[in-house]
Amino acid sequence: MADRGCALEAVPLPAEVRESLAELELELSEGDITQKGYEKKRAKLLARYIPLIQGVDPSLQAENRIPGPSQTTAAAPKQQKPRPTNSRDERFRSDVHTEAVQAALAKYKERKMPMPSKRRSVLVHSSVETYTPPDTSSASEDEGSLRRPGRLTSTPLQSHSNVEPWLDRVIQGSSTSSSASSTSSHPGGRPAAAPSAAAATLTGPVAHAHIGVPVNSRVSSKIQQLLNTLKRPKRPPLKEFFVDDFEELLEVQQPDPNQPKPEGSQTAVLKGEPLAVGTAWPPSLLAALQRWGMTQPKAPCLTALDTAGKAIYTLTYGKLWSRSLKLAYTLLNKLTSKNEPLLKPGDRVALVFPNSDPVMFMVGFYGCLLAELVPVPIEVPLTRKDAGSQQVGFLLGSCGVALALTTDACQKGLPKAQTGEVAAFKGWPPLAWLVIDGKHLTKPPKDWHPPARDAGAGTAYIEYKTSKEGSTVGVTVSHASLLAQCRALTQACGYSEAETLTNVLDFKRDAGLWHGVLTSVMNRMHVVSIPYALMKVNPLSWIQKVCSYKARAALVKSRDMHWSLLAQRGQRDVSLSSLRMLIVADGANPWSISSCDAFLNVFQSRGLRPEVICPCASSPEALTVAIRRPPDLGGPPPRKAVLSMSGLSFGVIRVDTEEKLSVLTVQDVGQVLPGADVCVVKVEGTPYLCKTDEVGEICVNSSATGTAYYGLLGITKSVFETVPVTAGGAPVSDRPFTRTGLLGFIGPDNLVFVVGKLDGLMVVGVRRHNADDIVATALAVEPMKFVYRGRIAVFSVTVLHDDRIVLVAEQRPDASEEDSFQWMSRVLQAIDSIHQVGVYCLALVPANTLPKAPLGGIHISETKQRFLEGMLHPCNVLMCPHTCVTNLPKPRQKQPEVGPASMIVGNLVAGKRIAQASGRELAHLEDSDQARKFLFLPDVLQWRAHTTPDHPLFLLLNAKGTVTSTATCVQLHKRAERVAAALMEKARLSVGDHVALVYPPGVDLIAAFYGCLYCGCVPVTVRPPHPQNLATTLPTVKMIVEVSKSACVLTTQAIMRLLKSKDAAAAVDVRTWPTILDTDDIPKKKVASIFRPPSPDLLAYLDFSVSTTGILAGVKMSHAATSALCRSIKLQCELYPSRQIAICLDPYCGLGFALWCLCSVYSGHQSVLVPPLELESNVSLWLSAVSQYKARVTFCSYSVMEMCTKGLGAQTGVLRTKGVNLSCVRTCMVVAEERPRIALTQSFSKLFKDLGLPARAVSTTFGCRVNVAICLQPNRLGKLAEQGTAGPDPTTVYVDMRALRHDRVRLVERGSPHSLPLTESGKILPGVKVIIAHTETKGPLGDSHLGEIWVSSPHNATGYYTVYGEEALHADHFSARLSFGDTQTIWARTGYLGFLRRTELTDASGERHDALYVVGSLDETLELRGMRYHPIDIETSVVRAHRSIAECAVFTWTNLLVVVVELDGLEQDALDLVALVTNVVLEEHHLVVGVVVIVDPGVIPINSRGEKQRMHLRDGFLADQLDPIYVAYNM
User: Fold this and answer.
1) Distance between the two ends of the chain, CA-based, in angstroms?
2) Burial level of 451, CB count in 10 A (0-12/13-18/19+)?
3) Which residues does residue 118 pair with via DSSP β-bridges, in sequence order?
4) Which ranges of 986-1134 would DSSP assign to H, the alpha helix?
5) Using CA atoms, how far apart are residues 1110 and 1349, in angstroms rounded to an integer?
6) Average pLDDT, stretch 573-578?
7) Three-class SS of residue 535?
8) Quick one: pLDDT at residue 459?
9) Is the pLDDT confidence value at 1149 over 60?
C-alpha cells in the first residue's frame, strides 16, 4: 500500500533476471527459502547491475563496505531469525519506502515508552483458536488480505542504527521512496528551540518520596518513564494567538516564514481534444441498445461467472433488449397502488442486486431507462444495521423511492419481518420489493413502444456517494451527460465493436458502470464480469479470463493486480498479449504506482506490454476526469514525479532533491477526456487558479459530468457550478466547472497528476496531510506482523480547534501485548519522522471488528463515528496528546502583587466593594440573660431535667422504622450521672482527662458525652470500627485514640470485644489500648457533685475528622464556643421545645455531631435520630420518618441524598401508597463541607416533588474544621415568617469557568459556553462575619475575586489539637489578621475558596442579602499550567463523556493529571474511554491528561460525608493497590 515505485528502477533489468527475481520473492514469501538464501541468490543475480544502480564507483564500494540494496535486509540485527507467520510478505512493495521508514526509526534508538498495563481478564483474545481471521471480504477497496495455504515468512524489518550512512548513498540512485526527515525530537539531537513551557514544567525532581509511597513501585516507574519521554523538546513554541472569548488564549499556528511557497506562473485551463465529429454516434444509448438488440440479437453482451470461475450465463444483446422491454412494460403498466399506476416517468427506483449478478442488474438498469424511470443502484443490505445503511435509507427517502427491484435469490436472502415481508431497514422509507426474474414479468403487446426519448437534460440515473462525514448523497447524471461520457470514453479508450472487456470492478457505480454497463452497450462490446467473491477465491481469475477470452481491455483496481501477483506462481500458461488497455481505475491512489510497477515487472515476460497499463482518475461528481492512453491512441509517454512530502503538506510541488527519506512518488493519470476542459483551483475560499507548482483541486468542465446532488441545491451550487477565476478575478470561462474532489496538478506534456483526495485530507496546524499517505507509512513499519494489510483506517477528529489524526487498525489475534505496543510506538515515530505530524490516537481493535464497506475495505466514517461515540472497543490504545496538542493556551504567569493601598483605591475606583458579609447581630436578638444562663451545656441539661423532666429529647429509629430507644430530659441526665460516676470510680480519671467515645450512633453516645462533661473530662467521639473491614477502619480508631491522648475508652460490650479480638490484633497492637469501659450495665450511682468549669474558655470537647486530603485534624471546642454554636443554630433555625426535627447524619464530627448531641439539649426540641447506616438495608427509612413525625426541619448528608435519589428513583409511587407525604417539610438542609452539589439537590427535589416535597425546601449548609457552622439556609418558617426573618431563598449564579481558573469571578448567562452553576451555601449564621482574603498576600479582596473564606465568630474552634502542637499551623489558621484594611479583627482561615455576592434580595432588617458561594477546598485544588483547577469541574466533564462512566476522580502526580474512572459496563469497553476522557478534558479545560486509569465501580474511596478521598486514591494508585482494568499513559 505504501510502496511508491520500484527500487530497481534506475537500470532496466533484462526480462529473464526480472523473472528470476520475481520467483525468488515468491519463494521467500511462501517460506520455501530462508532469508539468508534469498539474500545470497538475489545478490548473485544483481551483482552485475548493482554499481550501476547505486551510481557509486564499484571500487569505492569495496573500500567502504557499503552494502548494496541487495543486502538491505541484512542490516537487520543478526540474532533476529525470520519469524514465520501466516502472513504474506510485501517484498514486491518498494523496498525503499520500508527502508526509509526503518532508517527513520533507527534514529529513534528505541526510546522507552511506558507500556499501558492491563488486567489479565481484559486481554480478550485468550487464545488464537477462538479467533476467526478477518473474513476475507475485509480486504480493503485498495488492497486486501487474502487467505492462502502455506506458511509465509515476513522479513524482520527492524533496522540497525548503522543503517544511516549508506542509506543516503543507496537512495540517491533510486528515484522513488517515501518517508520523512526526522524533526528535532530525537533525544540525541539538539532542540531547535527552547522546549515549550509544558515540557519545561516537567523537568523538576520527580521522586516526591515524602508522599509515603515507595517511589520505586511499578506505577511510579512507568510515570517516570512517561516524564522522561515528555521531557523531549517539543516543536518550537508558536508566537501568535487568537482570543477565545477570554483570557485563555489558544495558540493559532502562524505560517512558518521559511515554508515553501508556490513560485510558478498562473496555470491556464487545459483543453482536451474535441469529440470526434465525423463518427456516426447513436442519438442516445437506448437507440444503440435497440439497434444491437434488433440487428445483432445473438451477439454476446455480458458473461457472468460463478465463484468457481465458470461462465454461468451469457446475456446476448437480443435478450437484453427483450427483457428490458418486458421490465419497462411491467413497471409502467402492471404495478398499481390504490388503482393508480405506482410509477410515473421520472420516478426514482432502487436497484438492489448482489455483486455476483451483473445480468439482472443490467436488465434492471436498462428496463428503468426504457420506462423513463431513474435507477438508483445501492448495495444489498445484509443486516438491519449495516455500516452506513441508515444513510443509504436517508438517500432513498430524499429521492422519494417507493419501489426496489431485486432478484429472487437476493430477495430470499434479505432479513424478513414476522409477516414474511422484507424487514424495514433502519432509517429506510417503506419500500415495495419487485423481483424481476423472467417469470415475474409480463410480455408487452406487439404495438407497445417504450416512452423513452432521445438524450436530454432529464436525469438518467443517480449514483450514491458517501462523504467524508458519512452522509450519503446522490449524484444525478442526465441522459445527455451519460451519452457524452460514453462517447468520450469510446474515443479515449479507442473501443470498437465486438471487443471483449474483462471487468473486475463493481458494475453498480463508478468506472465499473461507465465502462462495463454503459459504454460497452454503445459499442456492442462483450463484457466478462468477474465477481468479487471469485477474486477472493482465485485472485488470478481475471488474468485467466483475459487469456481465455482474448480480451482487448481489462478494468481493474491496483488491489486486483496486487492480489494476482501473490498468486501467479506456477501459472506458466497465462498470456496477457491480447490486452491493448489495462485500465487501473484507482490509478490516482498514492500506492497504485507500486502495484503497476510490480505487476509489469512480473507479467512483462507473459506478454504484457508496458504501454498497456493505463491508470485513470475519476470522481462521482465529474465521472472520468483523466485516463492514460496507449501511444497508438495518441498518448504521450508515461511520467513519474518524485515529490517532497513536506512540500506537499504546504500544498507546493517540489521535485525532491536532497531529503530522500520523505518523498511521494506518483504516476500520471494521463490526459483530459475528449471534449473536456480542466483547471486546478485553490482548495479553500474563492476558486482562484493555482500556480504551476501548487497543488489544488482539479475542476472539469464538460458535457459528460454529473449535474447535481439530488435535492441538495446549496452544495450542488458550490460543487457543480464553480466558476474558476484568474488572479485578477476574471472568470476563466462562461461555463461553470465541476469540482472533482481530487487534489493534484498538471504536469509536463499536459498530463494530469493526482496526489490525494479532498475526502482524505487532514489539516493539522497549517499543513495538509493525506490519510492514504499515513496509512502507507504505518504499513511500512512492519507490514504484516501485527496488523492486517488493508484493515487500517486513518481519519481526523477535531479537538481544541484543530484536526487530530487518529489511526485505527485491526490487530492479528496472535500478536502479543508487547508486540502490539512496540508496533504502535514505532508507527508513531515513523509518522512523526516522515510526515512531521503527530498521531493523536492510535487504536488497535480485534480482527474483524471494524465496520466494512460493501466491497471489503473499511467504512471510514462509520469507524470515526464509533470512535467518537466510544463504541470502537479497541484492545490497545496509545494516545499522544502531549506531543500533538501544540495550541494550548500559554501557561498563566503570576502577576507581581499590587500593594494594599493601590488595591483598596483600585477596588473603589472600579466600583468594587470589599467582599465581606455578616449574619445578624446576636446582641439585638434575645435576652442576654438566657445566654448567660445557658453558658455551660451540663447546666442546661440539669436545668431541663429539673424543669421539664419528662419532655422527650431523643428518639432513635432502627432500619424497620421502629423506635429502639428514647431519652427524656431526666433520663438523659441520670444516664449521664452514671457514666460520670463510672469514669471517676472505675477508671479513676481526673478533671481534664480525655475520653474516647466509641459508640454506634444512638442515645448511649449522647449520654456518655454528657457523662464526661459532668465529671470534667473531655470527650472525643470516634466512629466505631467496621466489623467486616477491621483492617482499614480500626487503625483510624487507634490513631484518634492515640493522637487525642485519651486516658480511657468508653464503649458498648460488643465493640469492646471487637477491639480486643484476634482480628483486631492483626490490624493494630491491642496491648496498647488505654482502659476500656463498657457502659452497658453500669450501676445506678449518683455523683457527689457535678463539675462546673471555672471559665467558659475551658476545653469542652475535641472534634476529630479526616479531611478529604487524608489529614486527621482534631479541633478544640471551648464551653463558650459550644454554647455560642448552639445559640446561633437555635436562632437561625428557630428551634423551640415544641419542634421536632429529623436528623440523618453521622454523629461523630462537625455539624452532624453538634445537631445530634448538643442542639436538642440547648434548645429543648425533640430530635428523631436516623443513623445513615440503617439506610443501606432500608433506603426509604429517613423520608418515612420525616413523613411520620411531620418534621418541619430535617438534616441529611449528600451521601444520604444520593442513596435516596438512586435507590428510590422508581419507587415514588410505592411510597405514596404507603402514605409517605413530605409536604410537612419546610426546610431540608444538606450538611456539607464542600461546594453545593446542584445537580444532586435538583434531582432530589424533582424526584420527591411527587411526594409533596415543596420546591424550595432543599438547601445547603457550610462548615469546616475551624468553624463547623458558617452558613445554614433555613426557609421562611415559624412565627417570624411573616417578618421574613429567615431570609431569602438560595440564589444560583453562573460563573465563567475559565475566569475561575485565574481566581476571578465573572458572571455569565445560563447556558453560555464554559458556564458553571454555583448555589450559595446558605445564610450566614447570627454572629458570624465572613471576608474573602487573598490566599498569599492575605489582603481583603473585591467582589469579583475568588479568594479564601475567612470567618470570625464566637463559635470558632479555638485551635487544632495535635500531638506536636504545631503552633505555626495553629496561629495561621485560627488567628489570622488581614495584611491591610481592618488589621485588628482576628479571623480563622477556612481553607476554602469562595466569593461573596450582594444579591437583590433583602433580609429582615432591610439590608441587601449577601450570598456566600463556596467553590472548593484549597487543599484539593490542582495547580496546572499556572492556573487553579477544582477537581470536581474536571470530574463533571469526564462523567458526561460516556454513559458507562459511573464515577470519576482526578489528582495530580508530578505535574501529570491522573484521571481515574469507574467503568459501569463490560471490561472490553474499557479502552473506549481513554480517548473520550482525553478529548473532553482538552476541550473543556485545556488540560492534557497524563494517565487514564479505568477501575471497577466502587474503587474510588468516599468518606461518610459522601466526599471523594482523592489523596487515598492517589496513594492506592501509586502503591499499585487499585487492581485497575486498564492504565493508559498518554504520550
Assistant:
1) 28
2) exposed
3) 1526
4) 1003-1014, 1030-1043, 1053-1059, 1062-1067, 1119-1133
5) 21
6) 88
7) helix
8) 93
9) yes
Distances (CA, A) of 679 to 321, 701, 706, 724: 40, 9, 17, 8
User: What pLDDT shows up at residue 149?
Assistant: 38
CA pair distance 115, 1530, nearest whole angstrom: 10
**Which of 213, 290, 376 shows the shortest CA–CA distance to 1519?**
213
Backbone angles phi, psi at 1396, to 5 degrees: -110, 150
Measured in whole angstroms, the distance separating CA 613 from the mean position of its chain's CA atoms is: 44
Residue 246 burial (10 A CB sphere; 0-12, 13-18, 19+)? middle
The mean pLDDT of 664-682, rounded to a whole number, is 93
The three cell numbers of residue 344 are 410515473
Q: Record the cell numbers describing residue 97, joined without a space.
A: 519506502
Q: What is the largest CA-CA distance in the chain?
A: 133
Which helix (H) or strand (E) segment holds residue 1212: the answer is helix 1212-1217
Integer Cα distance of 217 and 221 in angstroms: 6
pTM exceeds 0.90, yes or no:
no
Give the whole-angstrom CA distance, residue 1231 versus residue 1271: 10
How, if at all, do strands 1258-1260 and 1271-1272 pair? Answer: unpaired
How far, in whole angstroms, is CA 1265 from its chain's centroid? 40
- Kindly report, residue by residue over 601-626, the tens digit of the pLDDT: 989 988 999 999 999 999 999 999 99
pLDDT given at position 742: 95
Distance, in Å, from the CA atom of 1058 to the CA atom of 1032, rounded to the nearest integer, reads 14
Is residue 1292 within a helix (H) or strand (E), and if so which, with residue range? strand 1292-1296
Return the SS3 of 292: helix
Q: Count CB neighbours of 307 within 10 A.
A: 16
- Whether 804 has a pLDDT exceeding 50, the answer reads yes
Q: What percent of the chain has pLDDT over 90?
A: 46
Contacts of 59 (CB under 8 A, 6+ apart): none
Q: For the segment 1157-1200, what is each residue's pLDDT rounded down to a tens digit?
A: 999 999 999 999 999 999 999 999 999 999 999 999 999 999 99
Across 448-452, 831-835, 911-915, 966-970, the highest mean pLDDT is recorded for: 966-970
When mean pLDDT is compared across 70-74, 1259-1263, 1291-1295, 1480-1484, the lowest value belongs to: 70-74
How many helices and strands in the chain, by DSSP H and E? 46, 67
Query: Do the beta carbons of residue 808 and residue 863 sit within 8 Å?
Result: yes
Those residues with Cβ within 8 angstroms of residue 834's Cβ, 6 or more apart along the chain or in another chain: 100, 101, 104, 178, 179, 180, 645, 661, 662, 777
- Contact between residue 932 and residue 1399 where contact means Cβ atoms under 8 Å apart: no
Chain length of the chain:
1531
DSSP H or E segment with residue 769: strand 767-770
Question: Side by side, which strands form the sheet with 1388-1402?
Answer: 916-918, 1329-1333, 1347-1352, 1388-1402, 1408-1417
Q: What are phi and psi of 568, to 5 degrees?
A: -80, -5
CA distance 245 to 1107: 37
CA distance 836 to 1278: 72
Give yes or no for residue 862 having a pLDDT over 50. Answer: yes
| 95-115 average pLDDT score | 69
How high is the pLDDT of residue 287?
92
Burial grade of 57 (CB within 10 A; 0-12, 13-18, 19 or more): exposed
Please say if the pLDDT value at position 579 is more than 70.
yes
Q: Which residue has the cell 472548593?
A: 1416
Q: Report whether pLDDT(1345) > 50.
A: yes
- Count CB neighbours of 280 within 10 A: 4
Bridge partners (DSSP) of residue 1293 are 1318
Angle 735-741-743 (CA atoms, 0-180°, nearest 5)?
A: 105
